[in-house]
Amino acid sequence: MSPRGTWTGLGGGACANIIKFNKAKWKVLHIDQGNPKHKYRLGREWIESSPEEKDLGVLVDEELGMSRQCVFTAQKASHILGHIKRSMASRSREMILTLYPAQVRPHLEYCLQL
Q1: Which helix (H) or strand (E) holds 99?
Q2: Most-buried pick from 29, 35, 36, 94 (CB within 10 A)?
Q3: Structurally, how many domains does the chain consist of?
């Protein structure tokens, strides 16, 4: 990192090797409330700041909280259950008990590990 807030790690090497980066996809996530929130550049363009980012399917905010991730997961599970309810002609207990572990449980278990 140079003193002027330009990150030259990838930028400088990319210029030497003629690698093109999509600078619109780069974002800065400032972690912690006491963070001074410096501005950074990649080459000559400024990188915009973001209050939250999704990586590997996990939504993380500035405080490293994942409460929104859990809300989204619960909504997704609810939508899947609603879809099962609307699309199935037979709503027997056996049918729901067969579909629930295959369709809904994986989303909830992924959120629990977080």
Answers
A1: helix 93-99
A2: 29
A3: 2
User: Is 3 contained in some domain?
Assistant: no
Question: Strands 45-49 and 27-28: what pairing?
Answer: parallel
pLDDT in tens, 51-82: 777 776 777 777 767 777 788 888 988 999 88
Query: What pLDDT digit, counting tens, does each position of 93-113 carry?
Result: 888 888 888 888 888 887 766
Q: Is the pTM of this model over 0.70?
A: no
Residue 102 counted as domain residue: yes
- Shared domain check, 103 and 73: yes
Same domain, 46 and 65: no
Positive or negative, the CA dihedral 75, 78, 80, 82 is negative
* Residues 45 and 65 grouped into a single domain: no
Distance CA 84, CA 100 (A): 9
